[in-house]
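User: Some background: our group keeps a shared notebook of sequences we're curious about, and every so often someone picks one and asks for a predicted structure to add to the entry. Today it's my turn. The entry only has the sequence so far, pasted here. Could you supply the structure so I can complete it?
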Amino acid sequence: MAQFGRFQIQKSVTRDLGNLNSLHDFSSTLLENSPNIPSLLTELIPLDVEYMNTSTWEHDDKVMRVALPSDKSYSDRGDNFDARESSKTHLFKIPSFGIQTHIRPQDALRSRVPGTKDTLDSMDRLVANDIRDIRRSFALLQEKCLAHLITTGTSYVPNGSAPVTDFYTEYAGTSAASRPTVNFVLSDATKYPAEVGEDARALINENLLDGQTVSGYVALCGRNFFKERIHHPKEEQARVDRTDMWGQDPLLKRLANFSKQYRMYVGADDIVYVQYDAKIGGVDLINTNEAYIMPAGVEGMFARRFAPAETMSYVNTVALPEYAWRSDNEHTGTHIMYESNFGDYLLSPLTIIKATKS
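Assistant: Of course. Here's the predicted structure to add to the notebook entry:
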């Protein structure tokens, strides 16, 4: 008998499709308890990924200028336009993230495999579990890096392995603290939230780069922001006023599942509001009272650069997404070292609009 949440499980089995008289025991699978790994940002945001052979990313940002022609007499040739394109070189040191684990013989001593009656643990199973957990940790790190980039406008480098960059300062000449912001007055029943959403869309469109096009708009919302946004009196009244001839509400289709884990609402401003209430260590990745509105389908907004490991085998070679080393010793056990060297960069910072509520 085992405890799973508030349920007691004695044995869990499933039928074999090839032999209906045969049953498979999967009790041990149900008994595994692992933390949730949010992955919405990783799946939602298109990244320009490049694998480099150095730990420094250098690129040029080219600026081109245009001018409106003015009227002239037929005998004149027009105003002189001598502005030339300019470029600025950006240098980014790519941070390195690593984790290691040590499995000792005593870790398996007299240890029973969960879900079994008398099967003793093995070093191979412990090593495989540690590798699985390490890979899950790096998946969590990538989601954290993107959330940090969106909400703060800076790169995520907690321990200073590379300089922290404020991309609003780097590319837009302003700081992330003074970036474009819109405020939804959700406590006022006379203020229509869609008007603020339209303002946010206009700000995004004004700051698109030459050649960038938008396929939609997404707002990543904290829990309270999303709740008050969808329950604003004008939004709820619209559901009543716009009921069709069959007595059904067409706006109900606007409130649905973005994915099975996150709620979605398509506002009258045609922005997809997503309730992104993921947490890491009990801390919200997006503040519960804020939202971040960004365009969808825009190329060149986000970049991820991988650097090679600086070891005898890999230095100055083309980078790999992850590196792992394993060292076995008959007496001291197995030592696993894992690292990934990548940096996430926000190349069009002014196209992300911070939204607050009051």
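Suggested note for the entry: The longest strand covers residues 56-63. Confidence is low (pLDDT under 50) at residues 1-5.
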